[in-house]
Amino acid sequence: MKTTFRFICAVVMIACFALSSNAQRQTKLYIDNGSGTFTTLTAPGTGGIITLPSGTGTLGFGTGLPTGAVVAFTDPGTHAGFTSLGVSSPLTSPWTVGAALPIGETGATSAVVGGKIYVIGGETGSFNANQIYDPVANTWSVGAPLPVGQYLMTSAVVNGKIYVIGGNNGGENDVQIYDPTTPPGTWSVGTAMPVGQWGMTSAVVGGKIYVMGGRQGSQAYNQIYDPTTPPGTWSVGTALPVGEAQLTSQAVSGKIYVFGGQSGASTDNQIYDPTTPPGTWSTGAVLPVGQYGMTSAVLGGLIYVIGGQLGSGNNNQIYDPVGNAWNSDFALPVAQFWTTAAAVGGKIYVIGGANGGGTNNQIYTPGSGITLFYFTAN
Questions:
Q1: How far apart are CA 205 and CA 99, in angstroms?
Q2: pLDDT, tens only, 71-92
Q3: What are the residues facing 259 on neighbouring strands?
Q4: How far apart are CA 88 and CA 316, in angstroms?
């Protein structure tokens, strides 16, 4: 007997269950379930033969699903014959367009304070730009300019202040601190970074800023800034196992996930646990499509790695740190690298970039769902 099941699932941490015609045998289909027990399957957009836990079958993608999309699957039961899975994408893209960046930029950095996105610096417009986006009103305004203009720097937020660190326009050691409390805001200076960098990444854990990788000196540097007592102090964490530049990182549940890079390890997923200084490193599931010069953001505990300069600049790759598995969703409409991203109000804003228009403001709303068609023979 052959039974057909159809489910509509959101691309979030949920599971879809399909009972076979034999009630004693259960098959589970997961999309970012986070259980840690599933197997990740990948096939080209034209379909292909894959190995399932219970045998072999054909994985065919429906119209519109991005080439190389990843689906997670596990079968803890025993099945005779074969299992096949067909996937089709949502009818409506989760991407929309917001008000354009007034001064187009590449290599800018961004930060969120009070529900507003601050897009700072950049190479193509003004090195000193401080452009402020209000997602609710969909409008832009101007903040106090960055004192030392930069691009390919990094930034982080601690206690409502934005720390802009390093950059590739002189002042690679600079720590410039922006307080947006009273518009247009004020700038001050923090303790200089011991080893100046550009093309690095940063994340905040426990009120400290971890600045990793970069183009100057060693690409394995892990420099830790503690802003508790102004102008702040620096210390050194355990070096990156694989040194990189033009990488991206995000902090989730006290750990820092560092993805990709330009120096040959573009698929790396390096995980830093700072719990016991100087901290320890481990590795996670590799990035399905290696990238550098990409951006990232966190929503709902998932890390979205978007764009990049290696392979397709449209990639929207989704990592679940709990399940250590990757998925994907609708591609970025306008491919970009050296772009920046920020998450506000359940949406991700991908702003600027070095390909297809530095004024782009592309808005992603996850969770629009996909349709799964599941067939099993017993």
A1: 32
A2: 444 443 433 333 334 343 444 6
A3: 248, 269
A4: 16
Residue 243 CA to residue 354 CA, distance in Å, equals 24
Q: For 95-364, CATH number?
A: 2.120.10.80
Helix (H, G, I), strand (E, B) or coil at 142: strand
Mean pLDDT, range 270-278, rounded to an integer: 97
Q: How much is the pTM?
A: 0.78
Tell me, what's the pLDDT at 92? Answer: 66
Angle at 156 between CA 358 and CA 273, to 5 degrees: 120
User: What are 295-318's pLDDT values in tens digits?
Assistant: 999 998 899 999 999 877 899 988
Sign of torsion, CA 63 287 324 339? negative
What does the DSSP assignment read for 9-66?
Answer: E-SSSEEEEEE-SSTT-EEEEEES---S--EEEE--TT-EEEEETTEEEEEEEPTTPP
Q: Is the pLDDT of residue 270 over 60?
A: yes
- Give kind and range of the element (H or E) at residue 259: strand 255-259
| Residue spans of beta strands (DSSP E) within 227-294 | 233-236, 248-252, 255-259, 269-273, 280-283
C-alpha–C-alpha distance, residues 204 and 227, integer Å: 11
What CA–CA distance (Å, rounded) separates 146 from 103? 14
Burial 109-134 (b: 16+ CB within 10 A, else e): bbbbbeebbbbbbbbbbbbbbbbbbe
Domain boundaries, the chain: 2-90+368-377, 95-364
State percent of the chain over pLDDT 90.
61
**Is the omega angle on the peptide bond into residue 102 within 30 degrees of 0, that is, cis?**
no
Residue 325 has pLDDT above 70, yes or no: yes
pLDDT of residue 76: 39
- Residues 6+ away with beta carbon under 8 Å from 182: none
